[in-house]
Structure formats: C-alpha cells, structure tokens
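User: Here's a chain of 682 residues. Predict its fold as tokens.
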Amino acid sequence: MSETGDFSSNTVTESEKELAADAAQEFEQGNYESCVYILDQVITTRSNDPKVLHNRAVAEFYRSEFHKTDEFKQDLTLVCKKAQVALQDIDSLEDTDHCVIFYNHAVVFYHLKQYRTSIMILEKVFQFMEPLDERLKRKVCFMLIELYLCSNQPNKAFSIISFTEKLLFDSKSEKDSVKPASAATANETYKPRIQQYKLRCFLQLKSIKACKKELKMLNTMTQTGGMDTYLCGGPTDTTVYLKAQFECMKGNYRNSMKILGSAPGTHAPFLKSGQCVPAMYFNNLGCIHFYMRKHNLGLFYFQKSLEQTDEALDMLPQKETGQSLSGRPLQTLTGSQRHDLLHNIGLELLFCGKPLQAFDCLLEVVQVYHNNPRLWLRLAECCINTQRADNEQLFKMKLKAQDLVRGVAGQGSHRKLILKPMDVNSYTPRSDGPSSALPNATMEFATLCLKNALILLRIHNRDGKKKGASTQELSTSNQEDVQIPAPPGSPLGPNEIANLRCSVLACSAYVALHVGDTLIALKHAEMLLAQPKLSGVHSYLGHLYAAEAFILLDRISDATDHLTVEVSGLSMRIPDDSASEDKEDNGNGSTNNLVEASWFPNTLPVAALVIQYNLCVAYTIRGEFEKAQGMLWKIAPLFKSTSGLTEIPAHLMVLALYLQLQLGHTDMAKAIIKQNFPSLRA
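Assistant: Prediction complete.
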C-alpha cells in the first residue's frame, strides 16, 4: 500500500546501517511492531533525517493496520518539512529521493477516490522514473494505470501499460540484460495483471474485437496456474467479472449471468480490500436485467446489493473522535457504494412506472453527483412522469356524456345541448404555495432541473471551445478530450453528449408548454431543431412543440410550416451512430431501445397521424373549416386501424363536432352525438 524510501543522508555509522537493515527485514516479514521499535532507536541519533522519519511513519501506519490515516498524513507533512519540500505543492518535487513521499501521498488520495489529485502527483513523479528504484517504478506504473482506468481515461492508461511492459519484459534494454534470472521470472508473473489492464481499457473503449483478442490471451495465461493469486494466476473473481462484462457488452446477457455465477470466490474480505464483492455481484445482476428490460428483477437485485453494502459498512469500527479519517482502515473509507446503488435503483423505479419513488432516490444522489447533467435530466423525467406517465392514455381516453355536455336547455323540439370545452392538458401552473425551488416532483421543479442540465452542458461546451481546436481536429482527436464526466456512470462521449443535449431541450420545451411559458418553449424547440446532430424522434418532437408554441402565440402560418414536415423516423440514434468504425460496439444502444419501447406514438404511421391531427387544429383555428374537415375524415378511421385503438380518440370526436357546428351541419353533429352517446337522444 505504502512504500519505504532511501533518501540520501549524511554519514551513517555501521551500527545505524545494521539497525536500518534489521528494520527493513522486520518490515518485509510483516513484523511492524519490531520495525517501529528499531526505527525509534535510529531516531535517537538521527532525529532530523527525513529517510528515517518517513520509514517510521510508513511502519507505524502498517502497524495500525491502516487505521490512523490522519496521523500518517501529518507524519508525511513533517517529513516534507525536514526534506524542505512542500507536500501540497507538486512543483516543489525536484529530487528523486523525495518521490517516495509523494507516491505515498498519492496512495492516500487514491483510496479517498480523489483521483485527479492523485494523478497530478504521480504524473509529476513519473517524470523522475529513470533513476528510481525498480520496485518503486513498478508501483508508480501500476498505480497510474489504475488511476487512469478509475477516471475513465483508457488511452492514457495504454501509454503507461506500454511503458510498464518495456520496463518489465523488454530484454533488449541494458538494465534488463543484467537482471538475474530470478528477477526476470518474477516480472513474468505480472503478465496476467498487465493483460487485465489491457482488457479493462478495451472494455471502456467498447471495442468488441480487441476485447475478444485480449480475453483469449488472458484465458491462456490464467489456465497455466502456478502464479500468485494476487497476480491473477488461475481464474480469479476479477477475471470472471471482466468476462461477464464482455458478454454483457455483446448482448449475451444469459451467458453473462452464468459466468458471474462461476466466480471462484478468491476475493479478500471487505475489511482487507475495501470492496464488497457480494454487493458487486448483485449490482451486476441488476445491470444485466436492466438491459434485458426486466426492470422489476433488476430493482430486486439492486436492493439486494444495497443490503449487502449496508451489512459490510456495519462491520466497520467507529471513527476516532475529532478525526476525519482515523479509526477505520484506509481502504474502507470510501467503500460505501450507497449513492451509486441509489442511482441504479432510481432508474429502475423510473422504468417500473414509479416516478415518485424514483424522484426520492435520485434527489439523494444528485446531492453528491451534482455536476452530472444526465442526472438532472432524470430528475426532470421523474417530475414529467408524475404529471403524465404515458401519452397513450390521451388517445385511449373515453369521452363520456358528462364530459361533453354541460347542460340541457329547452324541451321537446326546442331541446338544446350545451357543449363544454374539453382540455386534455389538465395541468394548472402553481400560483401559490411553497417555492418551486423546493424539491418536489412538480413541473416547476422540472424546469429548474433542466436549467441545471443545460448550464452544465453549456459549461463543458465552452471549455471545449477554449481549447481552440478546429472542427476537423476535434473529430480526429482523442475521444477522452470531448467527454463529459457523468458520475456515477461512465463519461459521455461525443454522440451521447449530442443526444443528451437534444433530450434536455425537448424536455425543456415540453415542460415550458405545460407551465405556460410559451416563448421559452418556442426558444427551446427552435434550439432543438437547430442541433447539428438530431435523431428522428427529437426532430419529430421539436416540430410538434414549435407548432404548439406558434399556435398559442397566434402565429398559425408558422405553425403549419412545422406540421407539414415529413416524419423521417422515431429512433433515438443520431445519424453518426451507424457510421461508427466497429458496428458491434453499440455503446448505449440497449438503453436507447429500452426508452423507445414505452413511447406512443411508436410507429411512423401513427406519428404521421398525430402531425396531421395537429394540422387539422391549425386549419380550424385559422377558419379553414372545410379543409380541416376533409383531412379529419381521412385520418379519423386510420387511428383505429393503424394504432390498434378500439375507439376514435376523444379529442378527434370533439374536433369533428366543432367543425360540423361551424359549417352549419347540425344534423351531422346530432348524428355523431346519437351514435356515440345513446343516452343523449331526444
């Protein structure tokens, strides 16, 4: 975990050398109590020696079983003062003898999941790699690879992997040529570990073909046996989980579950490793069932994973009073995956049609991952689904007599029916009550969530422009340079960013129409249609929302322009998706299919009928009643035959009645009423 050092110092006596050698031997054998005792003897004569102080700090930290993290950090700060370097100032590192201090400092940040800080420190240490001790070189390389993978930077990890392979296995270098055979053999044991890192990189890049090749090589290595378990000799939990992830990425979900069940259980307990493997197992099962569209089962496994996490955390001792880190093992300080699991539970609840429960889960998650624009969108979707869970209900709504008739006037031949208006959008904007800034599953709070998402996307877009790269350079640059962090999930790639921006704009336009902000809705709809990468469904929604906004603004001609467009598709995929280099690398393809499955209209013919109905409404408002009637007679029967509805939608019937009355066809209007509402016959 930590590393002892060998600083240059003043003249050392023979007795001090013997004591130092004894301390090193005791440390390697795990006798940390004896090691600290011996180092205390050395300190009596070398109290200002940074090397001795550093090694005692490391030995003391090991003796406490990594419980006294605060004291260890204080000891490292004291060592730096003696060495005349500033631990908080990375640029102060100029001597290779001080690299081990900064390495140990980076290890602490790694276990605290402060990956950026740890990476900055180790990248500085990496500049002094050449004169470093071989053991420290390996540790720095492995730690950097792990950090790049944890922060989703696989391409940078590849560069360090290449360097590490040369360091360990390149026999042509001068240093390797004089290595003893035992050292070369020891290095060979790291090959499965390097292979694991390569496989993890390709999994993050979603490269199916490369993963298949690396996995085959890893299987060959792990089947030979005879290697240390930590170095992945033989099948380990890590290897099995990587195989399962690969099968899941290919869409072989049942095979992935089968592989997960074959894990040998070689993992260390939670107090030793800081990882709760049973929780990981159930979480992976939940993810697989999510992609299989079995959301209730996925929810069950995510909840089981949360229970396992809570049980593991209950095993931890209490933190020391007045200390922020000490009292628990360093590796367990960030062992809780509660918010990650709550995120998954919230998504499953949303897909299970429980938006209020999903809102409560995601609201807790957003307090930790507030810089994730996609998470703010999910919160807004919870608010929208609370107000209206399914568009299909609008088309299946049955028109009852009491919904159509307000009252009756007169008797006999002079009997008149007084019709009342029907508003399918029953939402009433809040004019009083608590502030909309308070977290509630309302459309007003959805507006705030969507504003946050747009601001975050705009910030990342502005940061990208500050780099000064041209469009061509951006298209050919490293994919990591155009990613947006979206914890607890993977970063968003270029296509995902474009799709997310379109989704946020579409939801913003929808919510603005509901709360009565017509101009804002029009602005968002026009911004949506102006996006360079626009999927079929986003284009469809953009035209619908823009047309509705124009109608509310009494700009009927502009509305008809949007309602005469041809519906090209209802897919969430943007055009560039089909042109990817590896068509098997589907990325979020499964997720997109899951979303599309619950939409209505979900076919092109029905979507076209909805457009035409709205066009009929526009013609009616403009006073072109005959034109509207002719179109309505054509599309009304098609709604039943095309969409599978058993009855003509209520709002189509109301429009037909209105048109007949405006055209003076009272007999026809009466016929429609008598045919559909026998109880209202005279």
